[in-house]
Amino acid sequence: MTLVIPKIFRKFREKTGFSLIEALVVMAMVAIVATLAIPRLSSLRDDLALKGATKTLAADLQYARVASLRRQSRVVVSLTNNASSYQIFVDANDNASLDAGETVLKSVALPQAVTLSSVAFFGCATGPQFVRGQPSCLAGGGNGSLRLVSGRTNSFYKIKLSRSGRVVVCDKNSDC
Q1: How many Å apart are CA 63 and CA 50, to the nearest integer?
Q2: 134, 165 in Cβ contact below 8 A?
Q3: Which is it for strands 156-161 and 167-169: parallel, antiparallel or unpaired?
Q4: Is 3 a residue whose pLDDT tops 80?
Q5: What is the DSSP string of 18-56?
Q6: Residue limits of the General secretion pathway GspH domain (predicted)?
Q7: HSE of 147 in the Cβ direction (CA atoms, 13 Å)?
Q8: Is the pLDDT of residue 155 over 80?
Q9: Residue 159 lies in a domain
Q10: How many separate domains does the chain show?
Q11: Which of these, 169, 123, 122, lies nearest to 144 by C-alpha position?
Q12: By C-alpha distance, which of 97, 62, 103, 99 is closest to 80?
């Protein structure tokens, strides 16, 4: 018994591989797509860094609140406008500044293109302070807030801190 291969399959069998022109056309198409995609990926990376920094800071505000409850003392989240880092520390002498001998609970550097902006905790120049789990510097029962801004994409996230200590992260580019 012999195997008979139809003519249509013999034709494909004789031609194997790609021609040089086909390979060059595919490489040119890949280069064009890569040229269009790379700037988008850079913007996406910056947006993800901003979102990650926002979630980290919101979690750290909750951490400071819990630390003040656990330690039964004043815990300060030291934030300043246009800063690229912040610290959380136990303020033993209640002066809202980090002094020698005070315990630093956490020191965080923000991603390269992300900065703090519009830090507004009325009555607290350095940022929110927690005493036994409650924010102690929100004058008049209002909310405190801050923004994290990406310098490259001009996007921002706003974080609000209520008088009860609740932390709310607003949608991107929204003041909620």
Answers
A1: 20
A2: yes
A3: antiparallel
A4: no
A5: --HHHHHHHHHHHHHHHHHHHHHHHHHHHHHHHHHHHHH
A6: 53-165
A7: 16
A8: yes
A9: yes
A10: 1
A11: 122
A12: 97
pLDDT of 43 over the 80 cut: yes
Question: In this predicted structure, which of 47-61, 66-80, 124-138 has the lowest mean pLDDT?
Answer: 124-138
112 lies in some domain:
yes
For residue 7, what are its two tokens? 């003519």
* Number of other residues whose CB lies within 10 A of the CB of residue 89: 22
Helix ranges (H only) for the chain are 7-14, 20-71
What CATH number is attached to the domain comprising 158?
3.55.40.10
The answer to whether the CB of 153 falls within 8 A of the CB of 50 is yes
- CB of 89 within 8 A of CB of 55? no
Give the C-alpha separation, 12 to 43, whole Å: 46
Is 15 within a domain? no
- In this predicted structure, the answer to whether residue 46 has a pLDDT above a threshold of 80 is yes
Q: What's the domain range around 115?
A: 20-169
Q: In angstroms, what CA-CA distances link 108 with 30, 87, 89, 134?
A: 40, 6, 12, 22
Altogether, the residues listed in the chain come to a count of 176
Which amino acid is located at 77 in the chain? V
- Provide the sign of the torsion angle of the four alpha carbons 26, 28, 32, 35, taken in this order: positive
| Residue 132 domain-assigned (yes or no) | yes
